[in-house]
């Protein structure tokens, strides 16, 4: 029993208790607060597993903005759950039991938590682990590059095969001589199995994706390796915003700006809000921009940005918010974010690469091109997410006052 | 143990004790305002102590500065949130508990 397992067990116990409480509690208010608590506990579970990006997303999206939006919904639907006849609904029970059984059956195929023999520890991750910020830049206090390590060549390496390649595909000696292999960045058996057709001038794909310029492996995976997935995730959020506008937006009646209760007559709230909003915005942009260096990225940063606007609206009223971000602007920006993402992909195509092949953005230093492309993409995600969240909030609040 | 680990342990222990006393107060105190009083005050102090304790065992300066910034911002924001909640409850018409009266 290690400390990790004990903490995990305690946290999961709390998570289960919270889940039961969410179902049992009749008050919808209490239930949505419990949902926030559930998300925060899950964020702690992710921290315990050292997956900081997931944890950050869970805390920002699950614990932060969804709680706000859930409470905004409760204002419309009433605080109490409708009483239901407490009787057994057999089809529902069977369906739930089957789904649960299927999910448990699915986990049987997964490697044990922390299993060193799991495929993820042998394929890709060793390469990504070898790429740390400190190592690449030689920052003091971080890991130093080994003696004789050619930093410049490392930075410029774009995965191109340097010498002639033997005809026998089983002869992998040439790979072991390449610079990445020298510093433990390639797992030759894996590479040989996955790239049997490498020839001179051919791009070795994985080092090309993660050649040390985007040190956060999660961002590398999400924005490059799984770039399509992330693009369509952003599109899903955009679609959610559009659907909400179509469902809820109607011609404005008199008094649509009337707030439920404006807190701007509270000096403390006013001052602290004015003080903290700049920091929240800076933090949001920091999270988006640093998505490639540390935990964070477009989704988390976008949510943080949205909370700054929502806080402003809560304290100073929506009339003030609409002077800062008029609804047409937020509507358009929600689409602009998706456009930035897909546009970056299209530019890569125009420059002669594949869709979302960021290395085309800078042919001299393909790694820098990837870094630039991922930053652009993160900003696209961030803009869409923040503006859609803001639109949802605005629609819920507007619905209230009309 | 190096001196900084000692300082860290003392601060963390203090933070945990204060945090625990807050949780105990939330369970024991009679009404909403008193419970929030317990939760808000102890949380603000406990988080500062815990984050300061972590500063002493963090090797690099950037992380130390970040931890101190988090502590400072929480020191301003957490009491404000408590204030907002109490004010909202007060405006909503919730009367404080008094010995023998009301409720």
Description:
The complex is a heterodimer of chains A (402) and B (103). In chain A, 66% of the residues lie in helices and 0% in strands. Chain A has 18 helices and no strands. Chain A has helices at 3-24, 28-48, 52-77, 90-107, 125-129, 133-137, 151-156, 173-177, 179-182, 188-194, 205-209, 217-225, 227-248, 267-289, 298-316, 318-324, 327-350, 366-401. Chain A starts with a helix and ends with a helix. Chain B is mainly alpha-helical. Chain B has one domain (3-91). In chain B, helix 1 (3-28) packs antiparallel against helix 2 (32-55) and helix 2 (32-55) packs antiparallel against helix 3. The model of chain B has no long low-confidence stretch (mean pLDDT 89). Chains A and B meet through helix 14 of A and helix 3 of B.
Chain-wise SSE layout:
The complex is a heterodimer of chains A (402) and B (103).
Chain A: H1 3-24, H2 28-48, H3 52-77, H4 90-107, H5 125-129, H6 133-137, H7 151-156, H8 173-177, H9 179-182, H10 188-194, H11 205-209, H12 217-225, H13 227-248, H14 267-289, H15 298-316, H16 318-324, H17 327-350, H18 366-401
Helix pairs in contact in A: 1-2, 2-3, 3-15, 3-18, 12-13, 12-18, 13-17, 13-18, 14-15, 15-16, 15-18, 17-18
Chain B: H1 3-28, H2 32-55, H3 61-91
Helix pairs in contact in B: 1-2, 2-3
Give a nutshell description of this structure:
The complex is a heterodimer of chains A (402) and B (103). In chain A, 66% of the residues lie in helices and 0% in strands. Chain A is mainly α and 402 residues long.
Helix content of chain A: 55-70%
Which pair has the most extensive contact? A-B, 10 and 10 residues
Q: Count helical runs of chain B.
A: 3
Helices of chain A, by number, come to 18
- Shape summary of chain B: elongated
Structural classification of chain B: mainly alpha
The proportion of residues forming helix of chain B, as a percent range, comes to: over 70%
Rounded to the nearest angstrom, the radius of gyration of chain A is: 25 Å
Strand content of chain B: under 5%
Q: How does the overall form of chain A come out from the CA principal axes?
A: globular
Order of helices and strands of chain A: HHHHHHHHHHHHHHHHHH
What's the total number of strands of chain B?
Answer: 0
Whole-number count of domains of chain B:
1
């Amino acid at each position: 029993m290690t400390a990790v397992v004990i903490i995990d067990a305690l946290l999961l116990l709390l998570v289960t208790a919270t889940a039961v409480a969410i179902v049992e509690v009749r008050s919808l208010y209490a239930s949505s607060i419990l949902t926030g608590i559930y998300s925060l506990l899950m964020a702690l579970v992710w921290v315990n597993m050292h997956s900081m990006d997931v944890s950050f997303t869970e805390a920002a999206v699950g614990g932060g903005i969804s709680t706000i939006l859930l409470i905004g919904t409760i204002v419309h639907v009433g605080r109490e759950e409708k009483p239901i006849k407490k009787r057994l609904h057999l089809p529902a029970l069977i369906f739930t039991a089957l789904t649960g059984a299927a999910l448990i059956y699915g986990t049987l195929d997964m490697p044990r938590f922390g299993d060193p023999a799991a495929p993820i520890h042998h394929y890709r991750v060793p390469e990504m682990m070898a790429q740390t910020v400190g190592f690449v830049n030689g920052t003091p206090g971080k890991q130093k590059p080994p003696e004789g390590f050619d930093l410049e060549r490392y930075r410029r390496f774009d995965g191109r095969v340097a010498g002639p390649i033997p005809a026998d595909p089983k002869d992998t000696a040439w790979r072991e001589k390449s610079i990445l292999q020298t510093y433990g960045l390639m797992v030759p058996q894996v590479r040989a199995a996955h790239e049997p057709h490498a020839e001179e001038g051919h791009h070795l794909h994985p080092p090309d994706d993660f050649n040390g310029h985007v040190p956060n492996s999660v961002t590398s995976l999400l924005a490059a390796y799984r770039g399509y997935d992330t693009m369509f995730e952003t599109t899903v959020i955009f679609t959610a915003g559009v659907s909400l506008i179509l469902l809820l937006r109607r011609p404005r009646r008199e008094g649509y700006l009337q707030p439920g209760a404006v807190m701007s007559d509270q000096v403390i709230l006013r001052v602290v809000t004015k003080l903290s909003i700049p920091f929240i915005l800076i933090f949001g942009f920091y999270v988006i921009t640093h998505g490639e260096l540390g935990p964070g990225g477009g989704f988390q940063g976008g949510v943080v940005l949205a909370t700054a606007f929502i806080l402003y609206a809560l304290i100073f009223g929506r009339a003030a918010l609409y002077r800062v971000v008029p609804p047409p602007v937020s509507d358009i920006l929600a689409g602009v974010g998706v456009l930035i993402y897909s546009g970056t992909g299209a530019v890569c195509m125009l420059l002669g690469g594949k869709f979302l092949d960021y290395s085309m953005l800078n042919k001299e230093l393909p790694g820098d091109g990837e870094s630039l492309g991922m930053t652009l993409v993160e900003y696209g995600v961030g803009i869409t997410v923040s503006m859609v969240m803001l639109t949802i909030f605005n629609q819920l609040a507007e619905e209230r006052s009309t | 143990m190096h001196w900084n680990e000692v300082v860290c342990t003392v601060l963390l222990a203090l933070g945990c004790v204060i945090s625990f006393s807050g949780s105990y107060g939330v369970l024991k105190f009679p009404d909403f305002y008193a419970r929030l009083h317990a939760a808000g005050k102890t949380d603000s102090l406990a988080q500062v102590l815990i984050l300061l304790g972590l500063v002493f065992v963090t090797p690099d300066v950037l992380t130390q500065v970040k931890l101190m910034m988090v502590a400072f911002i929480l020191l301003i924001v957490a009491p404000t949130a408590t204030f907002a909640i109490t004010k909202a409850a007060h405006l909503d018409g919730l009367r404080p508990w008094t010995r023998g009266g009301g409720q």
